[in-house]
Amino acid sequence: xxxxxxxxxxxxxxxxxxxxxxHGKSINNEINYYELSLELIRSIIWLFMMFYISYTRHNRxxxxxxxxxxxxxxxxxxxxxxxxxxxxxxxxxxxxxxxxFTFGILCAWFGLYxxxxxxxxxxxxxxxxxxxxxxxxxLNRRSFNQNVENSTDNNPSAYLILDIxxxxxxxxxxxxxxxxxxxTKLAKHISKSLRKQDRVAxxxxxxxxxxxxxxDSHTAQLKAEQLRTLIERSDFHYSGQYLSIxxxxxxxxxxxQHLNRDEIINLADKALYQAKNGGRNRVxxxxxxxxxx
Length: 293
Hints:
By secondary structure, this protein is α+β, with helices and mostly antiparallel strands. It has ten helices and seven strands. It folds into two domains: about 5-130, no CATH class; about 140-290, Alpha-Beta Plaits, CATH 3.30.70.270. A hairpin with a 2-residue loop joins strand 2 and strand 3. The chain starts with a helix and ends with a helix. About 30% of the residues are buried. Its EC number is 2.7.7.65. Pfam families: GGDEF. It is an enzyme of class 2 (transferase).
């Protein structure tokens, strides 16, 4: 079956119907050429739409509704043209014409409605895919950076960078599927431990960035310790193997308006580096680094 099979079939039916209706009838001597021109333009529009909607063939339901709608409107409009060219006294002619227009509009509207709903759903899926990490379902780095709210001294925010200890060893020993399992389960633990106003993103590899809203350094340290302990005590079982998972966390608090968010995160990253060098499975504040220096 060719791509435009149904469109050509509708054209043949319409042409045959026109020939039958005009057979034996004289042409109207008082043709309104203005009305006739408008009807011809409408027929061309519906004819174009009838062929153009073939691009929706991948969705049969939408394609069927649009095809029936445009086809009915095309045939109904051709009946209008016939009415301009000749006179049809039978009352059923006008009734059929009105029925085709009404039926065509309803079908075309329903098909268009379904098409719009499908596009809305696709856009939502694309938006989720563009803004979330496909493995963990958390925000990705791009989305996190696009939705930044500047914090002030009156409403400080804390940034935590969390890194899984010896993650490469997990991948090397048990395989990347085990590593994905750990990342996914860890993401769930982090999400459950946060408040509604807080945010978490997969920052890259085995690193997670957590933003704690309206949180000073002392509270941030307490929350980080609670999260570290929770993960250390959680059961990670993969293929019958128990995985011992610990994390290191670096913390930096927005306490200086001259520092932008990237600089604050950089401080948290330095604190994380210190936590790693200090033996892992610990929490380090960026402010403590300054005091040590």
